[in-house]
Design a protein that fits this description.
This protein is mostly helical and 293 residues long. The protein has one domain. The protein is 57% helix and 7% strand. The protein has a two-stranded parallel sheet. The protein has a two-stranded antiparallel ribbon with strand order 2-3. Strands 4-6 form a two-stranded antiparallel sheet. It is globular and about 60 Å long. About 4% of the residues have low confidence.
Length: 293
Amino acid sequence: MVRAYRRKSLTTAGIVIAVITGIIHSATDSSVNLALLIGFFITGTVFTKVKADVKRSLTVHIDDKGSEFHETRNHIQVLANSVVASILIIIQLAIDRQEYPRYWQVTQVGIVAQYAAVTADTWSSELGILSKTTPRLITTLKPCPKGTNGGVSELGLRVALFGGFFVGGIASFFSPVSLIPHNGSPGMGIPSLGITEWTVLDRAQFIFFTGVVGLFGSLLDSLLGALFQKSLVNREGKIIEVEGGYRFKEASLNKVGDVKAFSGLDILSNNQVNFAMAISTTILTMIAWWTLF
């Protein structure tokens, strides 16, 4: 957190929320949740800096006054990418995992799913924009400017899949017991109740599962962005992005110059799209896990 403050990668409010989030993620007797949070934060920070100068040249970044800005993530962005997991951890702490092992386990899968989705989406956004091919709008498959809400590329989708794999790898390494049930009913490290230590097959299945979850989350984010998040372009055809993931304000746009709508309705901000994607993917994954396993 000190490093985040010094490098201005997080605002003061963002750091406060990140610390609270870290405390919640440390509240369980396993290090897996904290490892997921740290893995997401570190890789997101690193990939944000990859060819940052090139990425800045591809889009126009403005603050609420219409001036160019240096990206510093705020508390809303931190919450949008972690609050679903924090809520599930709090719920999990109230569950007696010996008496209700299946309910405990499905919340853990939900926590992993949330990080698979937001990690995949972050990787896809930060690295996919560097694709040498022109992205296509997910709703029409027509070419669109780089940085368009709802724009997808082969590189972005591939990176999203590996982001999900990465989270599955963290979960299978740090979780003390397998998240793949055995013998019908899951338990907590008790073979007769269904949960045992990880096998090679368990790890492979779970990592594949989280890869699919991550890819799905990234695609859902693109779909929501294409439909409900407005994308504007300037005279040069560059996408305009607003500081902090907020919606556009007329006052700020007036200082940018001539802009025109490219796609999407002005209903959701980038933060709201991220949150909607995270909670939807998490719930759907928990339902899928409950049904499949």
